[in-house]
Design goal:
The structure holds 2 protein chains of 2 kinds. Chain A is built from 1 helix and 18 strands. Chain A is mainly β. Classes of the chains: A mainly beta, B mainly beta.
């Protein structure tokens, strides 16, 4: 009973805070984008080491952003897995690849856009290698020693992106992007296997307003 | 010089050898595959999702089979997920990486067991005296089958089964053997989805027959006559010396014909390679298989193996379906294009929800062209190889073909099917037949129906007729010219649980030709063909089948 009461208390607190967030955005001249993400005509695995629950929603605009210069994020190799196995970063971000397994691991990039590859090496437990990603696109990260190990690093031009996780039972989730400057954008998604129906959605963000865009992700043959 | 008694005994023994061998061949053809409960576990669904009356597939099951034992949008239905072998990205690194694959997360082995209770009203019950009478047999188990099938990723699927079969031939003799089948299929070749698949291994299951007259779909226990009939055979002791075959090339006198193997072609599993594919309305397969001269009849063997002619046979099948669920599982209805439309849409009533219904007409065609051979072995001056002063083996090749057309009409609870097949053999008796035109023609057809009285009770009936034309006859080979047969099968299939079925069915020959005169004291038995030998009487069978 106590736990349930605490849970509802917290929900109430969050509900009270939401208008404050919107109010803050309105005052500062930002808008937001949000909606439902739905898996359509297929299902994704949301449990287990090779799940496909991760969805990245991001905005593209005509404006180009300079690369970030002081950001370092870690990606571990542990239990024959890349952790995390989906990572969205802004261009210019450095990623430190660790090895916390007892065996050697390799890190091998396959650049999705160009098909080019880059082997940054193989190292022992406790060692690491840092790589900086300066170009946008998706980099499929593999370990040539263990064929099941794979991660995806999505390098984006600007900071307007969010990471959502599909719920296994409903095959849905919600997303929300806050503090987006007003303007015209193209909304896109990234998923390991599925494509956004329609490919992309042009949107207009207005200050103090929430732009609602529901997204269906589906298999390539249904995505047209 | 043989005495009359010795000849008689030889003939008697030969009769039983012939009976067992031919009946073995006949019964090896029974039901190439049953339902596979492993799929029930993978999808956590009942057998009736894919079978209207196991092992007969319904339209959903047919699409599942054609698609390499997986559903379209399989991930939405599969409950036991496969184990990935490598990440998909490795496929893009070709040729610098091994392509990824999948394997089942458990061993998808199915166990099927079959028990039979047989009644024959007129079987030889004493081979020594030739006495005949009714026989009752409990054959338990009649069959135990282990089957394994699974997709191995998106574009490869495999199938295998091992069937232990036991026959007691009406209580006179017990025989058992293990028949194996296995194939692997590579799908969607060159990225052409569904339309171009390559299968290698034991072909024939669901494949070489008319699509509307597949043994796997026969409602009764026995296979279709058109898929199992053989040309009338010769007993090896049908003649004792070459003198009695003056037309043979062999001039020496007093040679014993110790072995004669005719063209024993039947439509069933063969070893070879096949291309197949399907769309909503069409399904096809074309293939090349080993031409064979004999079948293994005991022990453990792959179906379709055995001595082969060194040459290849060719087959092609085409089926066209009008109405109902497509071969590709599409319904032909407009696809909903708005993913969020269902949020507000009023749910419409769906159509028939009966798992067996699929109002449709399917027309099928098949062709098979082969090169068989007859083999004749003579020993000189002796009945045994040890004392023979010489041995001559003659191989004579003979071309043959089959052409068939069939149709299956499903309307609500009724299914009606009919098929007709033409056959031709250039020279089925080799040098033993010296007529100017030694060719033999065959015609076989059937019509049948079954009706879903209740979901669990399906009465069925089938009439089949087989006719031979231009058989050599008494004057050339002492074959009885009249070898035609008419067979009526009546029965009911009861699905007493989703995975337990009981068949009660009877067989009655309305025309057995002269072949019904099975009298060891005469020479007539030499011409009888396989069903007539074994089923020249009225037979009732109860078959209980359970799947695990």
């Amino acid at each position: 009973m106590r736990i349930a009461a605490l849970y509802f208390l917290m929900l109430g607190a969050v509900a009270l805070m939401l208008p404050m967030v919107s109010l803050a955005q309105e005052e500062s001249g930002y808008g937001s984008v949000g909606g439902i993400i739905m898996v359509w005509k297929t299902m994704v695995e949301t449990t287990g080491p090779r799940n496909a629950k991760d969805v990245i929603v991001y905005l593209e605009s005509d404006k180009s952003f300079p690369p970030v210069t002081d950001r370092l994020i870690q990606m571990d190799q542990r239990g024959l897995l890349f952790i995390p196995h989906v990572l969205a970063i802004q261009k210019g971000t450095s990623v430190e690849f660790l090895n916390n397994d007892s065996e050697k691991h390799n890190v091998f990039f396959l650049f999705d856009k160009t098909g080019e590859t880059l082997d940054i090496g193989t190292w022992e437990r406790g060692q690491s290698v840092v790589h900086t990603f300066n170009e946008t696109g998706t980099v499929i990260t593999l370990c040539k020693l263990h064929l099941e190990m794979a991660a995806n690093i999505i390098i984006l031009d600007n900071p307007y992106y969010t990471h959502a996780e599909i719920d296994g039972d409903s095959q849905r989730t919600t997303y929300r992007l806050d503090r987006v400057p007003p303007g015209e954008y193209v909304l896109k998604t990234w998923h390991k296997k599925l494509k956004m129906k329609g490919g992309e959605a042009p949107i207009k963000v207005e200050a103090g307003k929430m732009t609602k865009v529901n997204i269906a992700i589906t298999k390539r043959q249904y995505a047209h | 010089m043989k005495t009359k008694g010795r000849i008689m005994k030889t003939k008697l023994n030969s009769f039983w050898v012939l009976l067992v061998v031919l009946a073995a061949i006949f019964f090896m053809q029974t039901k190439a595959a049953w339902a596979l409960p492993a799929n029930s576990r993978v999808y956590q669904t009942s057998c009736v999702t894919c079978h209207d009356s196991p092992p007969r597939l319904n339209a959903v099951g047919e699409a599942f089979r054609l698609n390499g034992y997986k559903f379209p949008d399989d991930e939405t239905k599969r409950k036991l997920k496969p184990l990935p072998l490598g990440d998909e990205a490795y496929q893009r690194l070709w040729p610098e990486a091994i392509w990824p694959g999948e394997k089942p997360d458990f061993n998808p082995i199915s166990l099927v067991s079959i028990w039979a209770l047989e009644y024959h009203d007129n079987q030889p019950i004493d081979p020594k005296t030739g006495e005949e009478g009714p026989t009752y047999s409990i054959v338990a188990p009649h069959e135990i089958e282990l089957a394994w099938m699974s997709p191995l990723g998106d574009h490869i699927s495999v199938y295998g089964d091992a069937r232990f079969i036991q026959e007691d031939w009406g209580g006179t003799e017990m025989d058992s053997w293990v028949a194996l089948k296995a194939w692997i299929e590579f799908e969607d070749l060159f990225g052409i989805e569904n339309k171009l698949n390559l299968r290698v291994g034991s072909l024939g299951m669901h494949s070489i027959h008319l699509l509307t007259a597949r043994n796997e779909h026969a409602m009764g226990f026995q296979n279709y006559l058109m898929n199992t009939y053989l040309l009338p055979g010769l007993s090896k002791s049908s003649r004792t010396t070459v003198d009695e075959y003056p037309q043979s090339d062999i001039d020496e006198v007093d040679f014993d014909i110790r072995s004669w193997v005719g063209n024993n072609f039947t439509i069933g599993p063969k070893v070879g390679i096949e291309l197949n594919g399907f769309t909503r309305h069409l399904a096809y397969n074309i293939g090349v298989v080993n031409g064979k001269t004999d079948d293994p009849t005991d022990g453990v063997f792959f179906m379709g193996s055995g001595s082969n002619t060194g040459r290849k046979d060719y087959f092609a099948n085409l089926a066209i379906k009008f109405g109902g669920l497509g071969f590709d599982a599409s319904t032909g209805a407009e696809e909903e294009e708005d993913p969020f439309a269902e949020e507000t849409a009023v749910k419409k009533e769906s159509g028939d929800s009966q798992f067996w219904r699929d109002d449709s007409l399917t027309v099928s065609f098949m062709g098979y062209r082969g090169e068989g051979a007859t083999e004749l072995i003579y020993y000189s001056n002796s009945a045994t190889a040890m004392f023979a002063t010489g041995q001559v083996t003659e191989y004579v090749k003979e071309d043959f073909w089959r052409l068939g057309v069939g149709a299956m009409w499903k309307f609500k609870d009724l299914t009606v099917e009919a098929a007709h097949m033409w056959g031709h053999h250039d020279n089925p008796y080799g040098d033993l037949d010296t007529r100017p035109d030694p060719s033999v023609e065959t015609r076989v057809w059937h019509v049948g129906a079954h009706y879903y009285l209740y979901p669990w009770l399906v009465p069925f009936a089938r009439f089949e007729e087989l006719k031979f034309f231009d058989l050599p006859g008494q004057d050339v080979l002492l074959l009885d010219v009249e070898q035609d047969r008419q067979l009526v099968t009546v029965g009911a299939k009861m699905q007493i649980r989703p995975n337990i079925h009981l068949n009660i069915e009877g067989y009655y020959y309305t025309d057995t030709g002269d072949a019904t005169v099975v009298n060891p004291d005469s020479t007539k038995y030499i011409g009888v063909s396989e069903e007539a030998v074994y089923l020249n009487d009225e037979t009732v069978m109860m078959i209980l089948r359970a799947e695990f």
